[in-house]
Prior knowledge:
Elements: H1 4-13, H2 16-30, H3 33-40, H4 47-52, H5 54-62, E1 83-90, E2 93-100, H6 102-115, E3 117-120, H7 124-127, H8 139-154, E4 163-167, H9 174-187, E5 192-196, H10 197-206, H11 212-222, E6 225-229, H12 238-254, E7 259-263, H13 267-275, H14 284-297, E8 298-302
Parallel strand pairs: 3-5, 4-7, 4-8, 5-6, 6-7
Antiparallel strand pairs: 1-2
Amino acid sequence: MEPIQSAMKKWMNNNKKIKDNFTQQRNKVINDPEIKQKLSEHVEIDEQDINRNLMKLYEYQQASKNCADCPNLDGCKNILKGYTPHLDIDGKDISLRYEKCKNKVHEEAQLEKESLVRSLYIPKQIKEADLAKMDRNSYERKEVVREIIEFVQNYSKGKFHRGLYIHGPFGTGKSYILGVIANELKKQYIQSNIIYMPEFVREIKASIGNDSFQSKIESFKKVQVLMFDDIGAESISPWFRDEVLGAILQYRMMEELPIFFTSNYNFEQLENHLSTSNRGDVETIKAGRIIERISQLSKPIELTNRYRTNE
């Protein structure tokens, strides 16, 4: 039987139009400035080697190098989306090596940052909160912005940084501030958890008796920066107050891990709330112990002005 390469060569020789097209494409490939430069650096590569590796050279010539011809990662035109080809020549062997392009690297870095912010039952608006859009026209807003910037700039693992206890009436933008802090922290690759307190209570109660209970408690204890949104809005039992909230606060106080709070209550009002259980029992000493831990972990800031952004 006649070898297929010989058959193809004979077939092309007998089809002038196809042969001309092939020659035209081959010349286009080997005259590509980058390929031409690369081949000129390897005099050991002869015409036979070029013909043998012509498909690899064609793939390289057609590809977008370093995102030059790609509008974004979704619009990547390469066979391996998000990867840019490199032409390697070793002796008489020609090979293609693909590496992540700058768009791919950027996207992975963004995803890594996004993964640093874990939120439970937090609205999208809060997740996308932006420091640049915060209103700074009042003294209290300027103070909050200053505290955020100082915390993020001075944060370092293993060194205690006091968080904030942001309190004030509904509509003053307390939750938005937590979102701003989380997004500023992720820029510095600092992990944070934001938890809406009433849902947090329900989540923990629902996990009692299954394998996730202890792991959830441990994650809230050990995350780099923890944020409780709207503490005091929940109805809690003495068990949750002392064995869950108290345990998390105690651990973070001992390990000097920062924590932020928002609440409609000041410390005194929150203590009254925590001292009364959902069964009507009053335990002021245990509630006072929780407030003491909160005050050691966070600095109180009161907001009174209605929230607005600079958008």
